[in-house]
Amino acid sequence: MVSRRKSRSRSPVSAKSPRGKSPARGKSPGRGKSPARGKSPARGKSPARGKSPARSATPSRGRSVSPPAVETTKPVKSRGRPRTSPQKSPARGKSPARGKSPARTKSPARAKSPGRPKSPARAKKSPAAIKELSADVVDKPLSESPVKSPSKKAEIFAEKPETSGLRRSGRSTRSAEDENAKQVQALIDSTKRGKKQATGFLTNFGGVVTIIFSCAFFLVLPILCTKTSCTLSSYKTVSLNWRSYIDRDAILIYLGFVALQLLLALLPIGQQVDGPPMKGGRHKIRTNGFFAAVSTLVALGALYYFQAPLDVVYQKFIPICIAALGFGGLLSIVLYFTGGRAAVSTLNPAGNTGSFVPDLLRGRQIAPVWWGRVNVKFVFHRVTLLALLVLNVILLLKKVDAIKQGSALGVIFACGAQIWYALDYCYCEEQWLHSFEYQRSGTGFHFIAGCAVWPFLPSVLSKFVVDHNVELSWYVYGAILIVHNFGWVIYRASSSQKAEFRKNPLKPSLSHLETIPTSQGKKLLVSGWFGWIRHPNYLGVFIMHLCWVALCGNTHILPLFFPLLTLLIFVEHSLRVDLNSKERYGAAWERYCGRVKKRLIPGVF
Fold this sequence. Notes:
DNA binding, single chain, mainly alpha
């Protein structure tokens, strides 16, 4: 009895069958011939089976053969398996993940492993695993899975400016922003390349010669075309006294006129429009040029009514012209130094070479703005046209007595044509914002001094008609009027078409025009006025200038100097515009040039 109790305490299995008499222990065919146990690749290759701490801790592995069959169920239960026997589970022999998963050696808690719910086979064949997976996903915070969280994705996209821009804006806005970014980058790169250009003595000397030649070129016609004669031989009678050219009253008259126009430009009267997209961005511009023109005419009428000495402008015509040229030179120098502190995006690539004289000529900025309100380029260009208006009105008032008698028809046509041209610009001055001169040309000595002295060149023609009392036949005036109006129609219609297309290419009234798309997202007009020649607006202005010269008659040859000068300027501008457009648009511009062969004059150039 004592021995049997001891054996029961040692082995609970031996209580049912004694060791020596049990035939099933040595002859069990099921234990040795089980195909599932011997052929299972997962049992023999699993690294987890050999490294399990539970198998090394059992005391019954070395004493009997039977305990392994009983002990094999323990790791299955500890791993969170369902209550199924190992023999009935088909997943043990077919799962390739059990033998290859490195996570089994590192994580003893199989039920809490986040990797196990990811297996689609296990989720389909064990409902308990599905419940555990859903519980883990619901209880797990979003911060633990940054890739799957929508809010995290939104934060990632918000940190990337290029991605957020694509999501916020449309296709057209995106292309405009990309183009602006490319233009600014190209501006910076070209500015850096420009500073590497030659800045030696020859460059500065050539710039000084250009300035002197330009000033002399602009002053030839006003100085040689006098009341007595208007020929090249008039240089013999030219005064050499500097007091004949520099006059204090003339300087004050011109400065007072510029101050008046600046004051009118600052008044909050007139429409305020968005400027065109430029390298420095958009800016607000008040287009009250017609208001300024009407106000100037009212002021002149008041001065004439109160018998102010308006004839002093006629008497000091050349000193006022020189004062305007000097003012333009000083303003260009001021713009040169203020351009050194301007933002990089507003700079002119051609005017930032590092050499003083070339940069002074070309201008360091495209369209400088002072105090956030004064667009120097836009306002000074308006001053040019209003100066032309004032000069012709004063010349017209000088012949008011002859006009009343009906004997000054030539003066009416000569002054009236230029007054109409100035008023037309002031009424449509917004269209000039879309021109090459405003958007691409720098604000330097060439532009400022040219605008300052230009109104005196066509005014010389009106002054010539007044001084020499030129009168032509009525049918000649009729023909000149028809041709002049034809040129004005070409100029105004082409400028309006271009401006409207730049503002809104999808406008219904422009839908019939044929265009060529460019890589910058813009389009080139290839029909309409710009399907005829490349620069029809230049041609229209040139035709009007020819008519102004025709009103001077054929008695003197020097007035022909003015249309020749205009032609040279327009040829240079057209070549510069074509070169710039070729650099910007590339193949699209070459296609346009293949369609439209001529630049300025149909069939000629």
